[in-house]
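Ticket #4471: structure output looks truncated?

Reporter: J.K.
Steps to reproduce: submitted the chain below (374 residues) through the standard prediction queue, then opened the result file.
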Amino acid sequence: MRVLADAHIPGIAAGLERIGCEPALVEGLQIDRERILSSRAEALLVRTLTRVDRSLLQGSAIRFVGAPTAGTDHLCLADLDALGIGWAHAPGCNAPEVIAHVLAALHELAVPLDGRTRVGIVGLGHVGWGLAGALDALGVAWLGADPLRPDRANAAGLQALLGCQVVSLHASLLDGGEHSAAGLVDEDFARGFSGRVLVNTARAGLVRPGALRILLERGVEVVQDVWCSEPAPSDEECELLEAMQLPTPHIAGYGAAAKQRGTQMVLQGLARWLEAAGGPSGGTSGGASGAAGGNWTVAQDHRGLPAAPAAEESWTPQQIERIGKVLDLRTYSREFRWIVLDADSDSDLDGAKKSTAVEALRRQAAERDGVPPI
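Returned output as attached by the reporter:
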């Protein structure tokens, strides 16, 4: 099977060859409908910068789509299912790095990571549940809210988190669905929150702009790593960014180890889909209708999470201090501010060049190595 893949997915060529596929590598920004049709590929592997929907794939030979990413916001799963196209992604691949970012940020803000602090966790999936385990190891109390996992969440829901000193967001956006979390943190929550810190390393759309403005006006310390406009935030976001305590350019979970995990997980998903379809040369060729039924997201192999989060021994105050020094969030926040705010008067960093500068900062951040094994 020929697989059209983003050339910047780490180790993808060798990985595809190991499972009997023929890799066809291309720059991510060059993946478009014309390229897909001319490639004669039956599978497509993309990063988050490629939007995959019906308009991109309909009438092509693509039977499988994979993304080595924790999220699927760039994949229209409804379209893939309707077209009979199998798909896979890599939920939780960057969980250790995101957890490290959250704990390093709290350490930077001098939040006591002990029994004096209670943390509210919104979203108890791979990252949120892992954060709960880390907090248990540190002796920090926590409450959870997650409509998709009521067995793990506090029965009082989101309102129970208003009294926590810290609220950390780890929910999927699910925009427009039955359990949509878009605008979950609204103006009422912002007015009622009596805590000190709001952390958002999940999705910018979880917090309404009006709510964010209220929180900042009330003196809440905001740690934000995600933006509606990326890589460079919009003018509206920049107005709010200026008042944030630790704004960063989407670098939580952005590291070499996380990327390698993502590659391994999506290759695993592709291999299992191929097995169901009869191997790299099996199945029906030449159209999406030949896809094996269902999807093979690796999430299927991670449904049985433990009944209680594991208290990881690697998370100690000493580890958090070391991680904080390596991640150096204050420096990245300062450089990010300069690029998107202070450099406005510098014509060399206008428009696309500003986005390029942010991407360069992200690549620099990806080279950090300070996350303990989980």
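Triage note (M.O.): checked the attachment and the full token line is present. The longest helix spans residues 256-277.
Status: closed, working as intended.
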